[in-house]
Design goal:
By secondary structure, the protein is α+β, with helices and mostly antiparallel strands. It has two domains: 69 residues, Winged helix-like DNA-binding domain superfamily/Winged helix DNA-binding domain (Arc Repressor Mutant, subunit A, Orthogonal Bundle), CATH 1.10.10.10; 176 residues, Chorismate lyase-like (Chorismate lyase, 3-Layer(aba) Sandwich), CATH 3.40.1410. The strands form three sheets. Strands 4-5-6-9-8-7 form a six-stranded antiparallel beta sheet. Strands 1-2 form a two-stranded antiparallel sheet. A two-stranded parallel sheet has the order 3-10. β5 and β6 form a beta hairpin. α1 packs across α3 and α2 crosses α3. The chain is elongated, with a radius of gyration of 22 Å. One of its GO terms (molecular function) is DNA-binding transcription factor activity. Keywords: DNA-binding, Transcription, Transcription regulation. It comes from Frankia alni (strain DSM 45986 / CECT 9034 / ACN14a).
Length: 263
Amino acid sequence: MSSRRGASDRIWADLREQIASGRLAPGAALPSTAELARHYGVASETARLAVTRLKEEGLVSGRAGAGVYVRSRPPLRRLGIDRYDKAKWQGADLVAFAADRVASGRSWEPGDQTQTVRRVPAAPDVAAALAVDQGADVYERARLIREHDQPTHTLTSYYRPEHVEGTHLTDDSAGPAGPGGGFRVLTDQGLEPAWIDEELQARMPTPEEVATLQLPPGEPVVELHRTTFTAEDTPVEYAIGVHPASRFAWSYRFQIPDSAGRP
């Protein structure tokens, strides 16, 4: 049984990589189970298990009597500046990950986000971002976001305890932290977000991230670092997001700065 599972995993990973890279494009037909079995030198049942796993991930779908095809599913648009528009989280109760789904023409449910919340000592980067002493207590809110059964990304936010104690940001129930999410909570605390500093970097995932995000072999991730400030320059959130590179298209729209001639 373990031998069959190992061979099935190999076929699944190979086909998944072909889909992620575009070698098996949206709408393309997968080889039949018999063809896969001959190509990989395995039993038909072993090949079938690999295809079933792709179906369960939503990467392929069967057509009665016509084979199995790669689903047409473009990457999620990960909005840049527009995802933080105050009209979304103040007026429309739309949290950032949901704004991305709406912009992508995709559905979402509150339960698509789950989290664990705990108090932890501030690591050096967290301490620097939140302007607290290294090792000081901070709240860590680690979220896993899914679309249907597939993880899309993780986002872990850190807060000063005096800013969020007793709010929904310390509640680990599934879903956003109430209407409008964390930014609305901070606003209700008298800490309205006013500006954000974001940095992006690409890297290879850790083994834990490969398992959590169900990544195919060789897939890089894009790591996001976000620090949110009030109008008085008080840091109220530091967040680290990990996004599979093939699952997101990053979208930005902004005014072009013009500082020419200014002192």
